[in-house]
């Protein structure tokens, strides 16, 4: 019988830790490294599932905390699960809810059993621990689930991080035991440990002992300087068994995608492409274009001359700028479509470069244009 997740490394880069692989869930098989569009409320904002398929999205991320609060995981379960509810036949990864719950600040209280918090929607009181997080994700029916964890803040003391990651390890074990669907839903452990190398080692070793089907690297991209993120990434990736997929949470700028792939990361997610789109900024081969600027008022060229997406083949910067200035929904929609296509296409080119063993050269060529150096 097929496992809920099968992963194969097909080609290792000779000049970095990058690898080209394939990951198979019960819904589809896709190549890695891969970028996962974020679909917080069971929708990648403003994109229909047909458009997601058009841009070749293979797996999307949805947020457990948000779906638990609204419409509730029980309603999604009654609909037949998240795939059915949102009519998405490809893979879905759900986060654990921990990240959102912890970001509620004073609205939450952390205890050994879990986190007591107030809903950001109506202030109602709730509790989420590892068992509740996994039960919600079981109800959602995602292909890949995350263990309930604390994404510790940055900066944080050694003592705080030590207590925090140890609790995250205990929560990971409890979540593993609580998983009602181990044959159909894969569960990842999330490595924490802040910016402390020995704590990262301890966190990783404790989770590797528990033999998860994949591992996320959490607690990064939380405001730390980029060089520090890359340094922690460098040694943390080495702690994860090579045959398991590695997921770097919350990362998705072109720079970070390249740096993450080069350090051996297989999966990425980030709200950046969709968030900046709503503010009128497009990612292009020649860097970011803030299309709302007056510069583009009579610019009848596409967002990106080198992009073959539907938006770049049919609409001009001037038209999209007009939509954004007029606060027309289509403006954000068009830039979102293009930005997601841009990152998904970038990952396709990165995979090709790994297969042809020319990733570092590709990175140099990409940024020579992106930053005009
Ligand atoms: N940058 C990050 C983004 C994220 N969505 C998460 C997360 O969901 N869990 N745990 C994490 O540490 C984390 C870090
Ligand atoms: Zn485009």
Automatic annotation (TrEMBL):
Active site (UniProt): 95 (proton acceptor), 269 (nucleophile)
Entries under Pfam families matching the protein: TGT
UniProt keywords, alphabetically: Glycosyltransferase, Metal-binding, Queuosine biosynthesis, Transferase, tRNA processing, Zinc
Cofactor note: Binds 1 zinc ion per subunit.
Top EC class for this record: transferase
Residues bound to Zn(2+): 307, 309, 312, 338
GO biological process, one term: tRNA queuosine(34) biosynthetic process
Cofactor(s) the protein needs: Zn(2+)
Region listing for RNA binding, in residue ranges: 250-256, 274-278
GO-annotated cellular components: cytosol
Pathway connected to this protein: tRNA modification; tRNA-queuosine biosynthesis
UniProt KW Transferase keyword: yes
Binding residues for substrate: 95-99, 149, 192, 219
Molecular functions per Gene Ontology: metal ion binding; tRNA-guanosine(34) queuine transglycosylase activity
Function: Catalyzes the base-exchange of a guanine (G) residue with the queuine precursor 7-aminomethyl-7-deazaguanine (PreQ1) at position 34 (anticodon wobble position) in tRNAs with GU(N) anticodons (tRNA-Asp, -Asn, -His and -Tyr). Catalysis occurs through a double-displacement mechanism. The nucleophile active site attacks the C1' of nucleotide 34 to detach the guanine base from the RNA, forming a covalent enzyme-RNA intermediate. The proton acceptor active site deprotonates the incoming PreQ1, allowing a nucleophilic attack on the C1' of the ribose to form the product.
Subunit composition and interactions: Homodimer. Within each dimer, one monomer is responsible for RNA recognition and catalysis, while the other monomer binds to the replacement base PreQ1.
HAMAP family xrefs: Q_tRNA_Tgt (MF_00168)
Family in the record: Belongs to the queuine tRNA-ribosyltransferase family.
UniProt name for this protein: Queuine tRNA-ribosyltransferase
Gene source species: Peptoanaerobacter stomatis
Gene: tgt
């Amino acid at each position: 019988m097929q496992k809920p997740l099968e992963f194969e490394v097909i080609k290792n880069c000779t000049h970095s830790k990058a690898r080209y692989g394939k990951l198979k869930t019960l819904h589809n098989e896709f190549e890695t490294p891969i970028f996962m569009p974020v679909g917080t409320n069971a929708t990648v904002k403003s994109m229909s599932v047909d458009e997601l398929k058009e841009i070749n999205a293979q797996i999307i991320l949805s947020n457990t905390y948000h779906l638990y609060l609204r419409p509730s995981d029980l309603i999604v379960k009654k609909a037949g699960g998240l795939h059915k509810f949102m009519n998405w036949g490809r893979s879905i990864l759900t986060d654990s809810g921990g990240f959102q719950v912890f970001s509620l600040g004073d609205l939450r209280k952390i205890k050994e059993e879990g986190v007591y918090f107030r809903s950001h929607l109506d202030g109602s009181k709730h509790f989420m621990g590892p068992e509740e997080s996994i039960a919600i994700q079981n109800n959602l029916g995602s292909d890949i689930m995350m263990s309930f964890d604390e994404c510790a803040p940055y900066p944080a003391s050694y003592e705080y991080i030590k207590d925090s990651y140890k609790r995250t390890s205990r929560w990971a074990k409890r979540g593993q035991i609580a998983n009602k669907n181990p044959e159909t839903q894969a569960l990842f452990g999330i490595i924490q440990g802040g910016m402390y190398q020995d704590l990262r080692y301890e966190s990783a070793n404790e989770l590797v002992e528990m033999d998860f089907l994949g591992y996320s690297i959490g607690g990064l991209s939380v405001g730390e300087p980029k060089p520090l993120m890359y340094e922690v990434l460098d040694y943390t990736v080495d702690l994860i068994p090579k045959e398991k997929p590695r997921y770097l949470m919350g990362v998705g700028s072109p720079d970070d995608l390249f740096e993450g792939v080069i350090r051996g990361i297989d999966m990425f997610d980030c709200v950046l492409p969709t968030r900046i789109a709503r503010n009128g900024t497009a990612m292009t081969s020649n860097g970011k274009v803030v299309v709302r600027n007056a510069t583009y008022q009579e610019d009848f060229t596409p967002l990106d001359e080198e992009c073959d997406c539907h938006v770049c083949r049919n609409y001009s910067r001037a038209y999209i700028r007009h939509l954004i200035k007029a606060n027309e929904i289509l403006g954000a929609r068009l830039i979102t479509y293009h930005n997601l296509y841009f990152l998904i296409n970038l990952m396709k080119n990165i995979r090709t470069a790994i297969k042809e063993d020319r990733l570092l050269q590709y990175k140099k060529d990409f940024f020579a244009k992106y930053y005009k150096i």
